[in-house]
């Protein structure tokens, strides 16, 4: 699932809904950097979490 993530996509962390929506900043291999509205910039291991896509664009 995380393989389709691209910068600009809006996602949610399924185990941390309090983080709010996040915008994907980068994906390098299994490392995904996301800027969440309530948790700031987080670097996630894509092997451990499947982010839920909210929107495919940054509108």
What does this structure look like?
It is a single chain. With 59 residues, the protein is an all-beta fold. 0% of the residues lie in helices and 44% in strands. It is globular, with a radius of gyration of 10 Å. The model has no long low-confidence stretch (mean pLDDT 93).
The average pLDDT value, as a whole number, equals 93
The proportion of residues in beta strands is 35-45%
What is the number of strand segments? 5
Order of helices and strands: EEEEE
Coarse morphology: globular
Radius of gyration: 10 Å
Class from helix and strand fractions: mainly beta
Low-confidence stretches: none
Span from first to last CA?
A: 22 Å
| Major beta sheet summary | 5 strands, antiparallel
Describe the strand arrangement of the main beta sheet, using strand numbers.
4-3-2-1-5
Quickly count the helices: 0
Secondary structure layout plus pairing:
Elements: E1 10-12, E2 22-28, E3 31-36, E4 40-45, E5 52-55
Antiparallel strand pairs: 1-2, 1-5, 2-3, 3-4
Short characterization:
This protein is mainly beta and 59 residues long.
Observed structural traits:
59 residues; 5 strands; mainly beta; globular; five-stranded antiparallel beta sheet; 44% strand
